[in-house]
Automatic annotation (TrEMBL):
GO MF annotations, alphabetized: hydrolase activity, acting on glycosyl bonds
Entry keyword set: DNA damage, DNA repair, Glycosidase, Hydrolase
Protein name: Putative 3-methyladenine DNA glycosylase
Family of the protein in this entry: Belongs to the DNA glycosylase MPG family.
Origin superkingdom: Bacteria
EC number: 3.2.2.-
Species lineage: Bacteria, Bacillati, Actinomycetota, Actinomycetes, Kitasatosporales
Pfam families referenced in this protein's UniProt entry, alphabetically: Pur_DNA_glyco
Length: 216
């Protein structure tokens, strides 16, 4: 018999911990996006940890800016950034306020509202591809910069919330180098901070950083 996932919202104390504790513990949790057309729920299967000033791969490595301000807390808030001039990516802020650590949500399985996600991810060939990658995840859930700073732990109605779900068993959790991170931050020995559920079809493929070519 398969147990029903726990729909209790995660408290702020869950996020008020070191990023390397929070990141793997997010696997199996349920992210709910409330939209005017109805909710979309996603089971998290892949994440990456970013540890602020201690991490050369982090947006906050060189300090606070208007872009990364939300990363500095409080924990439990949503940090959304725009990349490559076309995609949004979603993170959950963790650690004590002022530490600038966050977990990038890389992939998940849509478990509710797939029909809504499909209207935003028309190129997906199968439902397992709807949120397979951080930009696809944000697109499927209709997440953009307007949601930057959203409190996912606020009481009452909120556009984004994280539920307890069914945490991934430790023997199913894998870790390795982060995808597409350049320089020292991409060193898999120093920062094996990508975590995923083993053998889950929604996990995105690993890709090393490839420098962007300048147009001649």
């Amino acid at each position: 018999m398969i147990a029903t996932p726990d729909r209790t919202p995660l408290p702020r104390t869950f996020f008020d911990r070191p990023v390397l504790d929070v990141a793997p513990d997010l696997l199996g949790r349920i992210l709910v996006r409330a939209t005017p057309d109805g909710p979309i729920a996603l089971r998290l299967t892949e994440v990456e940890a970013y540890d602020g000033p201690n991490d050369p791969g982090s947006h906050a490595y060189r300090g606070r800016t208007p872009r990364n301000d939300v990363m500095f807390g409080p924990p439990g808030h949503v940090y959304v950034y725009f990349t490559y001039g076309m995609w949004h990516c979603m993170n959950l802020v963790c650690g004590p306020e002022g530490t600038a650590s966050a977990v990038l949500l890389r992939a998940g399985e849509i478990i509710e509202g797939a029909e809504l996600a499909r209207t935003r991810r028309l190129s997906a060939r199968h439902d397992k591809e709807l949120a397979k990658g951080p930009a696809r995840l944000a697109t499927a859930l209709d997440v953009d910069r307007a949601l930057d700073g959203t409190d996912a732990c606020a009481p009452g109605d909120t556009p984004l919330r994280v539920l307890t779900g069914t945490p991934a068993p430790s023997h199913q959790v894998r870790n390795g180098p982060r995808t597409g991170v350049a320089g020292d931050g991409g060193d898999g020995n120093a920062h094996p901070w990508r975590f995923w559920v083993a053998n889950d079809p929604t996990v995105s493929p690993y890709r090393a950083h490839m420098p962007r070519r300048r147009r001649s």
